[in-house]
What does this fold into?
Amino acid sequence: MSFYPQPQRILLPVSVGFMALSVVLALLFNLLPWRDVTGLPDMAALVITFWCIHQPRKMGIGIAWLIGLVMDAGNGALLGQHAFAYAVLAFAAIRLHRRILWFSPWQQAAHVLMLLLACQLLMLAVGMIAGGEFPGLAYFAGSLIAAALWPSATFLLLLPQRRRGSVDENRSI
It folds into this structure.
């Protein structure tokens, strides 16, 4: 077993348009009228986490905060609840991005699970301070499902950056 990371494929630069499209699609997913469904992953938080880990210079705390404001307005939630949690999530993801990228996708998912749980705890704390009730432990199922989706999300969101027709890294040219 090696302590060094496996060689990784060199990716093309990310398109800001693709990043924006992925964020908009995640927001649309979250804003669909299935608010009462238990275990639904917070796709906006997952996409914010992904881009903060993989592109910390292009996705930051301010953008995460704006996405949170859109979520607050769209869900009719306490204004600032999602914004605060997403900003803290982005900060933590950017702070840990180099560490997280050392691991395999499933090991990354464990780190992402902790980030998403912390984000949900912040939203829950803000809601309860404002007079809300505790929704039960099933409230945290969405973070578990989102973390399980991490390897698939990583594959899909990195797909446009992969070089087409490139030579395999393990073969010599």
In short: Confidence is low (pLDDT under 50) at residues 167-173. The first helix runs from residue 16 to 31.
